[in-house]
User: Fold this.
Amino acid sequence: MAEEIQNEFEEFEESNELFEHYRFVADPGQKPLRIDKFLVNRIENASRNKIQEAAAAGNIRVNDNPVKANYKIKANEVITIVMSYPPREIEIIPENIPLDIIYEDDDLIVLNKKPGMVVHPGHGNYTGTMVNALAYHLKDLPLFNSQDPRPGLVHRIDKDTSGLLVIAKTEHAKNFLARQFFEKTSKRTYRAIVWGQPKEDEGTIVGNIGRSLKDRKQMAVFEDGERGKPAVTHYTVLERLGYVTLVECRLETGRTHQIRVHMKHIGHPLFNDERYGGDQILKGTTFTKYKQFVQNCFNILPRQALHAKTLGFVHPTTKEFMSFDSELPDDMVQAIEKWRDYTAGRDLD
Assistant:
């Protein structure tokens, strides 16, 4: 039972939790000291080299200004640092699994993840993951070692969500990209099919997201702000298809299951999202033919209807903004076409 629960919790690690965020205030009597020496004595399991890499990427700041590793801190200064968690004791087995790579250079890879592929190993998923495939593809790079289940990861998407991910190939790139995701300067949009018809063509959903008090396998919205972490999702209606709607979602934050939880919160769960109730007929008629039609759509799209379509970030070396776009996967395209055919000529108001 414990392993089963842990396996479920693996999905709940959110984008920012790939990285640790520390904040220190130097003592009033602090004498000038190199910041890398200061931090290595205060962060457990952090090597001086790893701290220096974080500084080189601009991830160490004093009074909110980036500093180099040789900066000497002084009394009462506020130090913040973002760095990746230390490796876990899980051996990564390189596996020759095909990856849909749409861009690659010396610093990073942008790939299009297929639905059903777990991003990184965890309890119950030690092989067959995207990281296993990356370990094979990049087995000669020092960043990809057998003891780190998250090499190069700066963000992730759920197992049954498809779409774009950026992978760092160097420690510098990992730190540089991590800062963008941590500070929410990266750009991401998603396509989703949701149940029902949003009243407005555009909207913003604001509400803290945290683990549900009723079901720990789910996340939930806490409007009072006393629980969870702040989350903001902007959505735009792209196409109304009778009892479902195709929407674009833009994230300001990267909380676990954010789009799935926020859309459910406003009464529009994602189509065929089993965890959040979208795998039931939530809108429509009681006719047998309609029920069969929906079931056929579920069979075509056997997962939540969510795709990470665009991704934008500043390149760690060239400092140029890069933008990528991916086509909707076949299962979503086919489901949309079926709904178009179903609604054509019908008055579904």
Remarks:
- The first strand starts at residue 19 and ends at 25.
